[in-house]
From TrEMBL:
Residues 447-489 are annotated as: Disordered. The lineage of its organism: Eukaryota, Metazoa, Chordata, Craniata, Vertebrata. This is Apoptosis inhibitor 5. The keyword Nucleotide-binding does not apply. Keywords: Apoptosis. Belongs to the API5 family. It comes from the Eukaryota.
Length: 522
């Protein structure tokens, strides 16, 4: 027979008045547990009464937790919310894992208020025992339903950074890193990005050694031991995502050598056949930009000359020869070569960076005929470049403030940065012997404000050439929409477009499970 409201209140009174003799009134507590079998009013009362006296009846602990779980799965959302709100009161030292496991499963709810209640309860028990709570979360991430796994990972990626150092101690952070590495043995692309957000924000990994450990984690995901299949969009996507995650970790002490080497040996030779994982993404330009951003942090490279030669060959491909002239000295009627400034900026910058490590490459490692051909291409490109730069400066002359914020003028500003960068780098290569001393800020990177003892500010005519910038390590790579400067045809025409790359899967197969009942952990 179901317990009535009156009986619940009567038994509550017995327990409340018992004070130090609570353990003698086991029957009264059992009657309150039976309240979960009653109607909505009885259940709401039971949801409040059960946790209040929970700690006084250890022999009924399992029965009490299971009774509260029944209420957490009730059809009435108000009863569920009340039961969830009280769950942290069951999180004693021996039960913390179990409660965390239950709350993690409850993240699968589609009711917003209930979902927020679960989040609040998890945060509450985190502050009681962070490591025990993480045990329950990671248990579900590794073994739970796909929807639970997905939401548990998102919880970690958004909530851990809000917890204070007294909660997220060194021991707790090391546990997070160890468990995350287990999860990363089998992840989707989106999960990988979210988990990198989790571990990149850990204070224990902010040292050079910590950053190196993070790079090793990304290297494992990138599978750099395997040759790249350019026709496989998932393989290309994996490489792109891993490289993006690694980029903010690189510095003068944490080198990008393995990634740069892989790009030179596996990506550049297949550049034209790469299959884009996203239709609107210019995959060739995206790859070249990643290579350019990594190149300043490349350390000692085993096959430097061979990789420089690959880079040089690819650069030459994007720098056309001048059109043939007919007998009267005029250009033939054939179409003018295409000047792909955005591609050339990336390749020239990367070549310039790696060339510093082997400054005699163009002098001793390239035969005379090939070098002569390269200089002809450089001269032709430089002539076209000067015309563009003059046109862009005239178009931007006198424009300030809001006038520079129009879409058309923003495109011209980016174009001027690109062309100025190329101009600076070409001038270095025209030195005899070639020089690698100039520094530029890549056109899509923000120009960092100089500090007190910084060199003089560049003049308007040097706009875009920039200066050396200090690498700032951030917990999470940030990808802004990049503007592309890529003349489609003709000698002095250009178009620029924007793209916004959306992350997708490809790291870990789906497990094909749906929404299910709570799994009771005993």
């Amino acid at each position: 027979m179901a317990v009535t409201i009156e009986e619940l209140y009567r038994n509550y009174g017995i327990l409340a008045d018992a004070k130090d003799n609570l353990s003698q009134h086991k029957d009264a507590y059992q009657a309150i547990l039976d309240g979960v079998k009653g109607g909505p009013k009885e259940k709401r009362l039971a949801a409040q009464f059960i946790p209040k006296f929970f700690s006084s009846f250890p022999e009924l602990a399992d029965a009490a937790i299971n009774a509260q779980l029944d209420l957490c799965e009730d059809e009435d959302v108000s009863i569920r919310r009340q039961a969830i709100k009280e769950l942290p009161r069951f999180a004693t030292s021996e039960n913390i894992f179990r409660v965390a496991d239950i709350l993690t499963q409850l993240l699968q709810t589609d009711d917003t208020a209930e979902f927020n209640q679960v989040n609040a309860a998890l945060i509450s028990i985190f502050k009681m025992d962070a490591k025990g709570t993480l045990g329950g979360l990671f248990s579900q991430i590794l073994q739970g339903e796909d929807i639970v796994r997905e939401r548990a990972i998102k919880f970690l990626s958004t909530k851990l950074k809000t917890l204070t150092e007294d909660v997220m101690t060194k021991e707790v952070e090391e546990y997070v890193f160890a468990e995350t590495k287990k999860v990363m043995e089998d992840v989707t692309g989106e999960e990988f990005v979210l988990l990198m957000r989790v571990v990149s924000g850990l204070r224990v990994l902010q040292s050079v050694n910590g950053r190196q450990q993070l790079v090793e984690l990304v290297v494992e995901q990138a599978d750099l031991e395997q040759a790249l299949n350019p026709a496989d969009p998932d393989a290309v996507d994996r490489l792109l995502q891993c490289t993006r995650q690694a980029l903010p970790l690189f510095s003068k002490n944490v080198h990008s050598t393995r990634f740069v080497t892989y790009f030179c040996e596996n990506v550049l030779p297949n550049l034209s056949t790469l299959t884009s994982p996203v239709a609107e993404l210019d995959i060739q330009l995206e790859v070249l930009k990643l290579l350019a951003e990594m190149s300043p942090f490349c350390g000692d490279m085993e096959k430097l000359e061979a990789n420089l030669n690959t880079l040089f060959t690819k650069l030459v491909e994007f720098m056309p020869l001048p059109p043939e002239e007919v007998e009267n000295g005029e250009n033939s009627a054939s179409e003018e070569p295409k000047l792909q400034f955005s591609y050339v900026e990336c390749l020239l910058f990367s070549f310039h960076q790696l060339g510093r490590k082997l400054p005699d490459f163009l002098v001793d490692k390239v035969d005379a005929e090939r070098l002569k051909d390269f200089k002809i291409r450089l001269q032709y490109f430089a002539r076209g470049l000067q015309v563009y730069i003059r046109q862009l400066r005239v178009a931007l002359q006198g424009k300030t403030g809001d006038a520079l914020k129009t879409e058309e003028n923003k495109i011209k500003v980016v174009a001027l940065k690109i062309t100025n960068n190329i101009n600076v780098l070409i001038k270095d290569l025209f030195h005899n012997p070639p020089s690698y001393k100039s520094t530029v800020t890549l056109s899509w990177k923000p120009v960092q404000k100089p500090e007190a003892a910084a060199p003089k500010r560049p003049s308007g005519e040097e706009m875009g050439s920039g200066g050396s910038t200090k690498k700032q390590i951030t917990p999470l790579p940030r990808r802004d929409a990049r503007q592309i400067y890529n003349p489609p045809s003709g000698k002095y025409s250009a178009t620029i477009g924007n793209f916004n790359y959306e992350q997708r899967g490809g790291f870990r197969g789906g497990r094909g499970r749906g929404f299910g009942s709570l799994i009771r952990v005993g």
